[in-house]
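Fold it.
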Amino acid sequence: MAHPTDIRPGAAPLLPADPVLDNAVWAALAGPHAHLADRYGRAARYRPETYAFAALADPADPAAWADLHTLVGPGNPVRVKPVERVPDGWEVLGEGAGVQLVDTALRAAPDREAVRLTADDVPEILDLVARTRPGPFLSRTVEMGTYLGIRHRGRLVAMAGERLRPPGWTEISAVCTDPAYRGRGLATRLVRAVAAGIRDRGDTPFLHAAAGNTTAIRLYESIGFTLRRRSRIVQLRSPGTTGAGRTLDVLTRSARRTPTRPTAPDGRR
């Protein structure tokens, strides 16, 4: 069992800094998920219906924010993480706090009842997500990685899968169980099964949770995850008036300015 960590604002620092996990969305978009990215210079975002987030190579770099403005266009909403300070001119529409946990003692194991979910299962997946609200899941999120589900009498009753893939790591996400089937350990079994696949290809599992979701955080800690980082998540509106300019054309997904590709930390596979 991982040791519980204080998640209150101002609490002691968590695990040592990791340059990949500290900016996981960017690392994924500039690395293994580049094929799912719209990118301009030092800013990138997932394509529509995949994952509703953007990221910056360096959130403290004004040039990266200028690139994000070019990417999304004037007067448009965009979700960004992580962000500590929002530049002048960007309107904050909403914000929240999240935490990141990493696998330090998880017992990963395949599950004979877990089945691979595909694009054909998306209607059922979206129905389960709507009833359980595990976090953002869109019509093409299933393209981000492997998703596993457990069925009862043909009906999808629990699922979990892979989302962000920064080099050397894979995020476990969309962990949810139909309310009528909770208390049977299905979510834990699926987390272990997804983790087994992640480890098989040499990556280490990690996950995110809302900072206020202490029930989920305690569950993840109890099965071998350790809290390592808090982060601010913001929804912003870019400076300017909608229609005053144009969002970067979809055909320019290969950036005209190539940012530095993130590298995995020393010792990571």
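The CA atoms of residues 73 and 247 lie 4 Å apart.
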